[in-house]
Design a protein that fits this description.
By secondary structure, the protein is an alpha/beta fold. It has helices at 37-42, 64-73, 121-132, 158-168, 186-202, 268-273, 289-295, 304-317, and strands at residues 52-56, 78-84, 103-108, 111-117, 139-146, 173-178, 210-215, 226-228, 240-244, 250-254, 277-281. The strands form two sheets. The chain has a nine-stranded mixed beta sheet. Strands 9-10 form a two-stranded antiparallel sheet. Helix 2 packs across helix 5 and helix 3 runs parallel beside helix 4 (158-168). It is globular and about 65 Å long.
Length: 336
């Protein structure tokens, strides 16, 4: 998903490499097992080797944030990487069903590093759990995303959508995002994210849960602090810049402006602006229970006669909308 107002613009990942072989740097990272035991036990396992983690993202299989997270998570157990073939920022919870999903293996030397899917982040989780993973994952991690996914951006984010899809399967899932930076320190962010994931699991919550984790750049310096906060729902970023291409056709760029107005209540956006790591528990059940209770007392009535009359009027109008081509303004033929 694109960066939020406090994340700045987001670098586009260059996913031009389509070959099956991939050389990924793999520095040795030392993690004391004692730091991981509580979290692993919360997953119902007592040893790192038995924990199965599904890792995905929306920046694409070659994104540096994905590789950094994989290097950390494989210290905890088996990691299955299943990620989109190309960047899928802002696709939300889209799934593919009108054409087949193409899946290819990705190798690091002679070792199969993971799978690439020509689909959305949600597609990756769906096909990973049902077809690709050797066993059912104990944990789903989505990220590290290049750019924050906080506030209403949660609703647009492919990173968060992948974690939600994991929760659909009844698997505890965590979306991880880092504030955008041209030279982002993903390895350091991955270490922080892994620590927080361990601590979340160590609480031994009842049933699978869904978490959204955002790391500001300020948290990579000094002693980072964590805030458990609600998702901000302030509306923002509705402005567009209108431009005209050389052929006279108008087009629009979303500017991300204006930024949200921060209220008095602490939310993920206010916490991030203060330099805190923000952790938000999410729920995909969007039913507004208080209103539902009232609506169940309402009396509804539909008149089929009136509905049929309206349908006849629509059919009598005839015709259909037509797009006026800009080429009508030019004397010459449109370019091929």
């Amino acid at each position: 998903m694109a960066a939020t107002w406090c994340g700045g613009r987001k670098r586009l990942c260059h996913n031009r490499l389509r070959q099956k072989r991939l050389n990924l740097p793999r520095p040795v990272i030392i993690v004391r097992l004692s730091e991981c035991e509580d979290g692993l036990d919360a997953l119902g396992r007592s040893d790192g080797a038995g924990v199965h983690i599904l890792l995905t993202n929306d920046d694409g299989v070659y994104a540096p944030g994905l590789a950094a997270m994989e290097r950390q998570l494989r210290r905890l157990g088996q990691v299955s990487v299943v990620a989109p073939a190309t960047e899928q920022s802002g696709v939300g919870h889209a799934i593919t069903y009108l054409h087949p999903l193409i899946v290819k293996e990705v190798y690091d030397g002679d070792h199969r590093w993971g799978w690439t899917v020509e689909g959305s982040p949600a597609d990756c989780v769906r096909i990973a759990v049902s077809q690709l993973c050797p066993t059912r994952p104990d944990l789903v991690v989505s990220g590290i995303n290049s750019g924050l996914n906080a506030g209403i951006n949660v609703l647009y984010s492919g990173t968060v959508a992948a974690a939600i899809e994991g929760a659909f399967f009844g698997i505890t899932s965590v979306a991880v995002s880092l504030e955008y930076d041209e030279h982002a320190r993903f390895d350091q962010a991955a270490r922080l994210a892994c620590q927080l994931i361990e601590q979340l699991l160590a609480q031994k919550p009842s049933g699978p849960l869904l978490f959204n984790l955002n790391i500001p750049l300020a948290a990579l310096q000094g002693e980072p602090q964590v805030r458990a906060v609600a998702m901000d729902v302030a509306h923002y970023g509705e402005q567009f810049e209108r431009r005209v291409d050389p052929w006279g056709r108008p087009y629009y760029w979303a500017t991300g402006e204006p930024p949200p107005r921060l209220g008095q209540q602490e939310t993920d956006l206010t916490a991030l602006k203060q330099g805190f790591v923000a952790v938000t528990p999410l729920d995909y059940d969007m039913t507004k229970r208080a209103v539902l209770a009232q609506m169940q007392q309402w009396q509804f009535h539909l008149d089929p006669t009136e509905a049929n009359a309206l349908s006849d009027c629509a059919g009598a109008a005839g015709g259909r909308p037509v797009v006026q081509s800009v080429w009508a303004k030019f004397k010459g033929p449109a370019p091929l």
